[in-house]
Structures are given as C-alpha cells and as structure tokens.
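re the bet — no i am not wrong, look at it urself. input seq straight from the record:
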Amino acid sequence: MSFIVELIMGGINTALNNGLNSMGGSSKIVLGIILGGMMAIDMGGPFNKAAYVFGTAAMATGNYDIMAAVMIGGMTPPCAIALATLLFKKKFTKEQRDSEPTNFIMGLAFITEGAIPFAASDPIHVLPSCVVGSGVAGALSMAFNCTLMAPHGGIFVFPVVGNAVMYVVALIIGTLVSAFLLGLLKKNIEE
C-alpha cells in the first residue's frame, strides 16, 4: 500500500489539486462545473475527495463559494436518483424505487454514496446523468454567488449558506437535469 498505491493515488490527488488551484483565478462558473462534476464522477472516490479537500482548503483561506459548489455537487446525485425513481418508475426495479426516501434524505444530508448502487448497476447511464446535473448545480451555485461556511451537513447547515434561496434553486435545477437525463438515457426494466 505504502510503496505502490499511495504513490499512485497521491500523485493523482496532487495533480487534481494543482489543476484546481491553477483555475482559482479563472471563470468561477467553469470551476463550479468542474467541482460539481468531480463530486459525482466517482461518488466518494479520489475525484470526489480531491474536490472536497480543495473546497475545505479554500474555506481556510476565506473563500466560501468553492465549498458551496462542492457540497451542492455531492447533494445532487442521490436527490436526482430519488426523483427519477418517482418520475420514471419503469426505469428502475421495485427495490430501487423503494430506496427513494432514503436517497432523498441522504442527498439532502450531503451523503453522495446513496447513489453508488445505482451507478454500479448501470454506470454508462447513471454516471453521465449525475455528473451533468452536479456540474449544472455547481455552476449555478457559483453564478448565484452562494457561499458555505461549513464543510459538511447538507440542509442542516443551511443557516450558514450565503444566498440560501438561490442555493436551493441551484440544487433543484441540478436535480431536475440529472433526473430527466436518467429518464431519457435509462432503458425500461422488465420485472
């Protein structure tokens, strides 16, 4: 682990963080797209963690809009999957549809991992749908100048979200984008 995996994954994380740091002065909206998408691309893996660490490091320097984009990017996939299971019932198994309330709760609590079983069962359709919606949500969060002064917590930390109403709007739009992409891309399930 120390001599092979740590070197490789450490190098990937360092490269990702250096790339994100070099974007700091460029377009906030592009940065929001990238950070939001990174939160959804592997749902807890190295890309997700690199974006999260970048967001928490930005908070330490007093830059709170980056963490807002990161958190909304992580909230979008489980919320979108929950909505898609409601709207497009034929695209999901009964067991998947039954997880709808859990996914809404997990998404609203900023626990992206609720989307992993869906991504694992159909990565070709689920991951792109989630990445696009999370990227949209992250971009809108930046465009609306939303800020977040807490590194975790989802709706439980909304009292410290700057421009909270527009933050909710960004979350709703990102969720709708991903949910409708899921409905469009996924095939009907035969039960």
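see?? The chain has one domain: 5-185. told u. also The mean pLDDT is 90. so pay up
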